UniProtKB/TrEMBL annotation:
Its EC number is 1.5.1.2. Residues 162-265 form the Pyrroline-5-carboxylate reductase dimerisation domain. The gene is proC. It catalyses: L-proline + NADP(+) = (S)-1-pyrroline-5-carboxylate + NADPH + 2 H(+); L-proline + NAD(+) = (S)-1-pyrroline-5-carboxylate + NADH + 2 H(+). It is an enzyme of class 1 (oxidoreductase). The keyword Oxidoreductase applies. Belongs to the pyrroline-5-carboxylate reductase family. This is Pyrroline-5-carboxylate reductase. Catalyzes the reduction of 1-pyrroline-5-carboxylate (PCA) to L-proline. It is found in: Cytoplasm. One of its GO terms (biological process) is L-proline biosynthetic process.
Length: 266
């Protein structure tokens, strides 16, 4: 396991990873180094977590056995420019950027660089992340296992062929946003029926959590689990009919495909 981790870019995803790592005690907080172009953003996260702010990207690269690049795709090239020279040949560069291929990353850093492309998601912050892990040819199996261990410490992580990363982005990378919209809509429906709003969010979120756990823990087909809820002539099948009439499944599939297509085009 890496003894030191650096995080370049402490925005939404960088924060989620650091908070997940610290909560999981996967690595000592004072062995997690942070750099953000706007230092106050790194300072704020350091205050919350005990991680350590460094002054420059060069220092970040020098100190980190695993360096997580958590900046926007369009600035990845310039951000890598600043760490490339000081990154140890033994260190592993981990990019979480949408749409930036292993090939492109190696073009920016050099052909010898050990690079792993990871597609995480923000529920990392609460220990329920989902991440794909795609190493390049310079990364050993043991190093890949180290990256999986890091991302598994705050959720699930699976080694995945890079060609699946667009699908991963559309599903689990962007997916939390669709689920929040679903939760909000569920709650709005209940509010329409007179339920207080805060109570509606609790009922909606716990329903999504419980249903997700049923899929993961029973291993049963989601359609069979749905059938268990639909009593013949009952309330649920009435609701299911309206969802089908509204194109719920197609809308959801199209959302996953739209995000995947965007990931390809970035
Ligand atoms: N958000 C998500 O759910 C997911 C995001 N990702 C990927 O993670 C990456 C980051 O996304 P996200 O966290 O949402 O974006 P954010 O904009 O929230 O975070 C990026 C952070 O990087 C800072 N920054 C900008 N330039 C530099 C630089 N040169 N060096 C260091 N820090 C810099 C930004 O500062 P400032 O804002 O002050 O400019 C900002 O705080 C993206 O590549 C995205 O594709 C992947 C999976 C999920
Ligand atoms: O919206 C984005 O581009 C990033 C990548 C996956 C989730 N958020």
């Amino acid at each position: 396991m890496f003894q030191t981790i650096g995080v370049c870019g402490t925005g939404n995803m960088g924060r989620a990873i650091v908070k997940g790592l610290v909560a999981a005690k996967a690595i000592a907080a004072d062995h997690i180094y942070l750099y953000n172009i706007h230092r106050e953003k790194a300072e704020a996260l350091a205050q919350e977590t005990g991680a350590v702010v460094v002054d420059t990207p060069e220092e970040l690269a020098r100190r980190s056995q695993g360096l997580i690049m958590a900046v926007k795709p369009n600035i990845m090239e310039s951000a890598l420019e600043t760490v490339r020279e000081t990154l140890s040949t033994k260190s592993v560069l981990i990019s979480i950027a949408a749409g930036v291929s292993l090939e492109k990353l190696a073009f920016y850093t050099g052909p010898e660089t050990k690079i792993v492309r990871v597609m995480p998601n923000t529920p990392a912050m609460v220990g329920e992340g989902m991440a794909s892990v795609s190493p390049n040819i310079n990364v050993s199996e043991a190093e890949t296992a180290d990256v999986v261990a890091i991302f598994s410490s705050f959720g699930k992580a699976v080694v995945t062929d890079e060609k699946l990363i667009d699908a991963v982005c559309g599903l689990s990378g962007s997916g939390p946003a669709y689920v929040y919209m679903f939760i909000e809509a569920l709650a709005d429906g209940a509010v329409r029926e007179g339920m207080p709003r805060q109570m509606a969010y609790t009922f909606a979120a716990q329903t999504v959590l419980g249903a997700a756990k049923m899929v993961l823990e029973t291993g049963r087909h989601p359609g069979a689990l749905k059938d268990d809820v639909c009593s013949p002539g009952g309330t649920t099948i009435e609701a299911v009919k309206t969802l089908e009439e509204s194109g719920f499944r197609a809308a959801t599939m199209n959302a996953v495909i739209a995000s995947a297509e965007k990931n390809k085009s970035l």
